[in-house]
Amino acid sequence: MSLIAFAGRRLAQAIPVLLIITVAAFSVIHLVPGDPARVMLGSRATDEAVQVLREQLGLDKPLVTQYLDFLKAAMRLDFGDSLFQRTAIGPIVAARAVHSLALVAYAVLISLVIAVPLALLSAIRRNLLADHVVRALTTLAFCMPSFWTALLLVLLFSIRLKFFPTSGLGDSPLAYLASLTLPAVSIGLYLTPILLRSLRASLIQTLGAEFVEAARARGFGEARILFKHVLRNSLIAMLTILGINVGFLISGAVIVENVFSIPGLGSLMVAAIVQRDYPVIVALTLVFGVVVVAANFLVDLSYALLDPRIRQ
Amino acid sequence: MRPFPPGIEEDAWLRLTKRARLDRRWATISLYAGIAIVAFIAGLSAAAPFLGLKDPTATDLMNALQPPSLAFPFGTDDLGRDIFARVVYAGRVDLVFGIVVTYVSLVIGLSIGAISGYFGGLIDTVIMRIVDLVISFPFIILILTIAAIVGPGLTGAYIGVIAVSWALYARLTRGEMLAIRRREFILNAETLGYSAPRVVFVHALPNLLRANLVFSMSDIVLNILTLAALSYLGLGVAPPTPEWGEMIAQGQKNLFNAWWISTLPGLVIVLAGIGFSLIGDGLADRLDESGR
Amino acid sequence: MTARLGGLLALAASALFVAAPAQGEEGAPRKGGTLTMARDSEPLTLNPIGAGDNGSIFMIVQVFDTLVETADAPLPQSALATGWTVSDDAKTWTFALREGVKFSNGDPLTCDDVKFSIDRFADPKVNTSYGGFGAAIAQTECAGPSSFVVKLKAPQGAFLDYLSTFIPSIVPKALYEKMGDKAFSEKPVGSGPFMVKEWVRGQRLVLERNPYYWKNGQPYLDQIVVNYVPDENTRMLKVESDEAQIATEVPYAQIERVAALDHVDVQIENVMAWDAVWFNSRKAPFNDPQVIRALNYATPKEAMLKTLMHGAGDIANHVIARVKYWDPAVEAYPYDLAKAKEALAKSSAPQGFALSCLIVAGDQFELQQAQILQSEWAKIGVTMEIQAVDTGTIWTRWGSGDENCFTFTGAGLSSDALSDDNLAVVFFDFTGGIESFWTGWNNKDAIALVKEADGTIDEEKRKAAFHKLQRLAMAEYPAVPLFFIKARTAVSDKVKGFKTLPVKWWNLEDVWLAP
After folding, report:
1. So which domain of life are we looking at (chain C) (predicted)?
2. Where are the domains of chain A?
3. Quick check: B122 contacting C, CB < 8 Å?
4. What is the domain range of residue C438?
5. Which of A33, B210, C31, C347 has its CA 20 to 30 A from that of C71?
6. What residues in B contact C375, CB-CB < 8 Å?
7. Are strands C313-315 and C382-389 parallel, antiparallel or unpaired?
8. What CATH superfamily classification does A94-307 receive?
9. What's the predicted TM-score (pTM) here?
10. Are B135 and A126 a contacting pair at CB < 8 A?
11. Which of B17, C425, C189, C97 has the alpha carbon at shortest distance from A43?
12. Which residue among C232, C374, C393 places its CB closest to the CB of B253?
């Protein structure tokens, strides 16, 4: 099967998935009690005032109409206005998506750079000192609460050493990268151990497989065996976990976004849900759906590239 | 001594068998050390009422924010509650939650993922798109909905986390299944005419379990931490019942003036995490022995 | 989301403010410089009509002017209006408009602009968020280029106080009509001390000096960068590292630590905010004042103030905020378990009872406060279940009238206006629209007192009515008042003249930076 056909088929499958997600999110969030007009007006609002505001916001229209309006607009990549921010959703989400994607990409890069060599080391020196040290340290990093490690990083690198700003986003490309470094490391501290453990386990499994022994027996060099055969064959589980986590991190890096004052998608989603800002919730659901579907598509694609036997 | 396979040098074979013995020994050590750590925490928590600890929920404002001392081994929080007692009691909620949620999800996900990867085609497509749906559906909305339906409390937390986590294991298993689908031992089993369930659950299973087990060990810790996050949305343990994640969150605002409120429960989670990791590694290595 | 109500500032507190010297006594104000602030909330809109959250309001007041303004005095001060007269029937107000005022784009501010803005304020279809504030206005007209007349439907005691809020900010009519609601909310033009230079949602709002501002020589600052820093620890680190000179909402637990820093001080100031626990008097046993009294006596406010708030607050002797007509002589309930048990024994629930209380999920402070109440009230046989509910649901739940008990974040309830009237309508007037803050407290005397105070501009009568109301509420109202909340702001030594006003926003046009 050609890659284009594969991609085309997956794209076709993605559309119903995304439709179902938005319908589900839209209907389910309306099942949950809560009313944006009531949240906006808070304690001082009489029922009449809430009603007037609901009419102004178009919340009195039937749900089906509201959803179809959203869908029609979404086809034109117009997500309407946020109920709370009183401005178009598209630009808000786009600006935040850039920061979220940059942050997660940076974090993934850091994690891979650390996890892959350490996993190789750990698997080769399996059950020896280096392996134990690597595993102990990464378990430690993984289990510490993220706001705790994030704050520790700030205290050390921003307050004490003044390498990076404490929070916020820089304007120039270099300053932007610098301001994303500590948050990316914070996420990396969570992601690296997961990737490392998974890769180490697969590596050990592969190292014990028949074909490796056969390659050894045929006198191939260890380095060649390691990179050409073992690593390639061991990446699948790690990539799957990475794929799942990318989707998860784009929407779920709320604590890190908060500690470092990064306006990302995760914190927007939490705010939108608490406020019951329905159009923003549905738009973000769609964006997250696209990210997850794309990430998993890339993972499936990499299966095929890594191991031709999977391509049927 | 067994005759070594043809084509392999004698010293290479000796090296491999020596290596295997070392691995086996470490697998055993790792497994038992892990079990000992987890059992220690679980045992303390289970026996909490008989240990003569202070009341974990009794507030005592005169003794608020005491640093660790002989009277309060882990110090007190800003309501003057004994953090050590709270940590020990919290284990009763957290360990059970972490283990149950993780392994129920693992069993469901493993079965579904294995079927998806083994059969491929339409079944695979449908299952994987459902998995995409579950993974990309905003978790917070799901949790809010569940809270609205079953009401606040632990039940909703169990349902919510399992409803999502199985999909991770399904994807993971399916990827692994694809990787071994064309391996000789599977093809051989099929040639021998074994039924599909037997091939999947007997022959393939040990190979699928490893990745899942390894992931599940970090997942337990994640799920325990998730429990605390859920309380932000009104699900989870009702106050004042102690819970690790909640204790850590509570200490966030006191990190500068009372480091022990967050840090010591955090270290207990680290200890539990190390215990679970050791068990996972030990089990995975043992599976390896039997799977070969 | 915060909720603000209406009212003026406490007399005693305000006297203190007037007497207190501004921080920058060391020499004359210097012009120039950029002030960087780290704020806990961000604006959602910059349109005075439609804003309802502190994130927006505190920025709007920097960009716009009102006819009268709420400085730190107990009475509204002249601003765009240099003076005013009121007819004998207290229904016609005539304002003399300041001459030569310009908007920040250079356009002159005319009576047409004033009329346009006040008419929007008075129209409940436009002013949905604060319809009640402008509801008394019957008609407005320009009697000359600098004479603006407002006719009221009936005399309104708090009329000037409502005019001093951010809602009737004066906007340029022609520009507003040209731009429309949405565009104007993004890039507003006003006649306030600052104008919007750049607004990056989720990150920062940059304000710069309005060159046409009418106050002589002001503002002093060239530019203010207001960064949105939601995490409280990070916000404090921002001032600690000198990346910001002001950080809002110092967490209670860090007051001592931040104040001990060499270059930073923590300013603790009275504002019109408060915290209390509310009960539903439609439900037994909360219809019994003895039960409420018992709970009040069983609440260790002093210990809570010390441990949870590190002393930065005052024990409340009123069910609402400490506003203009607050009576300091009224006694707060002391912590007295014997009296609590006695009151409960005399009540309709002598054996105690169980209740479930709604709190805002995710607010650690409220959670801890609730847990203290839980363990203290248990001592008199009252078992309380804490139900954490997300903000999106909590008003709907409490407004349904089916719940027992409710408490909102301490930073969440405050007064928008300088006098007690609006809070009184919302909390004490069963007929005021939300049945006494949904507590269902239906007290004829209270309703009469609210109306009496509202219907006159006679200061003595108003004061007497509100004082009576305070005593009545403390005795009968279904609530446990807890604390008057204070503003806690970390301020760098370089910043001079900074002050938090009773309405919780800041006098940034008076602020200057030392070299």
Report:
1. Bacteria
2. 3-75, 94-307
3. no
4. 271-487
5. C31
6. 57-59, 79, 240
7. unpaired
8. MetI-like (1.10.3720.10)
9. 0.89
10. no
11. C425
12. C232
